[in-house]
Amino acid sequence: MSKKRIEWIDVAKAIGIVAVVFGHAMTRHGTMFHFLYWWHMPIFFIMGGFFLKPIINNNWWGFIKKRIIPLLISYLICGSGLILLSHFIRGESWSYTAFYFVRLLWGGRTLNHYLSVFWYINVYLLALVLTSIVITYVKTREYQIIIAFISLIVSTSYKHVWFFNWKYIPWDFDVAFIALFFMLFGYLYFHKIQQFVKDLWIMIPCGLITLWIFWMQHMDRFNFAFYLKSKIIHATFHHIPISRVSYILFIPILICMVVFSFSYYLCQFFPQFVIKPIQLLGQQTLGIMYLHKAVIDIIDEMGYKSAIMETILAVIISFILSLLYAYLKRRFKQNRHKNIPVNG
């Protein structure tokens, strides 16, 4: 594959992260709130599968060093920083703060306040490993598809499971099997997705179906709730319970496809001076994911309650801080390489 970035993927990431921030800024849990939660996390798991490759020659250490350790380091650094920030701004006790470092290691649903979205990194890392195992050791495409379906069906077949009498599973491990389904979908169908997003004969009907589903939810004809972190999933049609799996199979993927197509045509019809900033925003989604909840909470404590303005401020501030973190990390690497002695 060419090293040139695919613009619409970065744009889709930008749209996805704005949807995440807006969802966290909203206080009224109406139709728009539910709509955002249908797809704003699945889209990142789907895109996470786009460029995955089987592990060659069982070089798992190379995979871990390249894909896992950098995310794990950023998780620990950003998490620790936000725990300390929360201590001083929220006036938490040192005993609460000290125990929060244990919760950071446990992850998943134990994380709240400034770190409430950090569960995503736990699940993303687990899904990366699980998906890489599947595509490395299961060579047949049909079997990979079967595993994706089994993973989704089993992981959504129960509401809760206890972990040694503790109600929170480390790193939301069981949620990772739902994420595995979406990541495998992205891996298996990336080339098809690239074709479909350009085909208006497919995407316009998909867009219209998305609008119809949104309207049906608004009119309370059916009700679909999909909260990955807490694994709260329910689906009814005319107040009659239906298969949760069928909704998860259909609605998140449908909306993600519409977002992908919208991003593609945005790149086609808008000039580069419009697309490039959006693309740059999409390249900083991880930093914004880490930081935006803290910004929203601080703005809330200042008494400012507009969800739209909170979203704009949280995206901008988190984006700037993310760029600053990337710059400092780059400078640190450069200085470290300069200080390495060279024998000669």
Automatic annotation (TrEMBL):
Q: Which domain of life is it from?
A: Bacteria
- Which residue numbers delimit the Acyltransferase domain? 7-326
Mark the transmembrane ranges.
7-25, 37-56, 68-89, 117-138, 145-162, 168-188, 200-218, 247-266, 278-296, 308-328
Record keywords, A-Z: Acyltransferase, Membrane, Transferase, Transmembrane, Transmembrane helix
Q: What GO MF annotations does this protein's record show?
A: acyltransferase activity, transferring groups other than amino-acyl groups
According to the UniProt entry, the coiled-coil residues are: none
What the entry lists under InterPro entries is as follows: Acyl_transf_3_dom, Nod_factor_acetyltransferase
- PANTHER family from the xrefs? MEMBRANE-BOUND ACYLTRANSFERASE YKRP-RELATED
Q: What is this protein called?
A: Acyltransferase 3
